[in-house]
Design a protein that fits this description.
- By secondary structure, the chain is an alpha/beta fold.
- It has eleven helices and eight strands.
- Helix 5 crosses helix 6 (146-157).
- The protein is globular.
- It starts with a helix and ends in a 14-residue tail after the last helix.
- 40% of the residues are buried.
Length: 297
């Protein structure tokens, strides 16, 4: 590499970091913001931290335990609870269900900057949250982007913990995603790159082998599944949900919804579609949920 190439690559990397930061606007959902958004409006909120498997995880529990349903929401990459703020603050969703949402490992207040590249390990870490919040209320599990991938694994590992699964623009098929060559430079310039970019890149670079290990586990999912994807998604290709649908041999029903002229960021660009779909999925939940195994014990 010539002396002229190094400054160019450094400039490109800094530019990419700026673009990623601007697009995803990674921020930590602070206690002050939570108070302003929720607590000051009289909405019951619990901010919970727990330790498991050497990690510290934070999650929010929004709404009363008397609400008839629960919804667990997993954010994407790079992101945090801040990325779900619009939905967590929505009065219509708050009326429908108690909302439970963690900062995934490495993001927000869950060991910021120290990620977890193993999808199976993320599932193990989040299982304690399920144990802490389990009861007989029906539960919808929701995930977006990489959060949809983790949600899939969580449903595979805990098939009796949820009643429905809603996945948005997720990665399911090994290799069916765009890997940008410039991402290989992230470790080289690590000192100048924000922690959340490190975490997201580590997850991205290790997607393939962990998705391969998940292939025989799709049969474990025994709940109705709905998958939404943008037809113009150039990051996680549109073939992903169709491939996953073929693996879901034990799901009672599988619905795949494609959104025309939509790319990867449909949680923002298609809010008028995503929010009503969440409410629709919540209303399809049974009146009561009963755990039939001791998987969470």
């Amino acid at each position: 590499m010539t002396r002229y190439m190094k400054p160019r690559l450094f400039f490109i990397l800094i530019l990419l970091t700026f673009v990623c930061t601007s697009c995803f606007e990674h921020r930590r959902y602070s206690r002050r913001e939570i108070r302003k958004d929720l607590i000051d409006k009289g909405i019951p909120v619990k901010i919970v931290y727990y330790d498991t498997l050497g990690r510290t995880i934070r999650y929010l529990k929004i709404g009363s335990d008397t609400l008839p349903r629960k919804m667990v929401l997993l954010h994407g990459s790079p992101s945090s609870l801040e990325g779900l703020r619009f939905y967590l603050n929505d009065p219509d969703l708050q009326k429908q269900a108690q909302l439970i949402a963690p900062d995934r490992p490495g993001y927000g207040e869950s060991d910021y900057g120290w990620g977890e590249k193993f999808i199976s390990r993320q599932s193990e870490v989040l299982t304690k949250m399920l144990w802490q919040t389990q009861d007989h209320r029906p539960t919808l599990l929701f995930g977006t982007s990489y959060g949809a991938t983790v949600a899939s694994r969580l449903a595979m590992d805990n098939p009796d913990a949820f009643d429905r699964l809603l996945l948005v623009c997720g990665s399911y098929k090994p290799g069916a995603e765009k890997i940008y060559p410039i991402s290989k430079l992230v470790p080289i310039f690590s000192a100048w790159i924000p922690g959340f970019i490190h975490v997201a890149d580590d997850e991205k670079q290790n997607h393939y082998p962990h998705l391969v290990t998940m292939v025989p586990l799709w049969k474990n999912i025994r709940m109705p599944v709905t998958m939404v994807h943008g037809l113009e998604d150039r990051l996680l290709y549109p073939v992903n949900p169709l491939w996953a649908a073929k693996q879901l041999v034990n799901a009672p029903s599988v619905d795949v919804i494609y959104l025309a002229r939509q790319r990867h960021g449909i949680m923002w660009t298609a809010r008028p579609i995503i929010k009503p779909l969440m409410i629709q999925e919540l209303r399809k939940l049974p009146k009561q949920h009963v755990l039939t195994t001791s998987r969470l014990d």
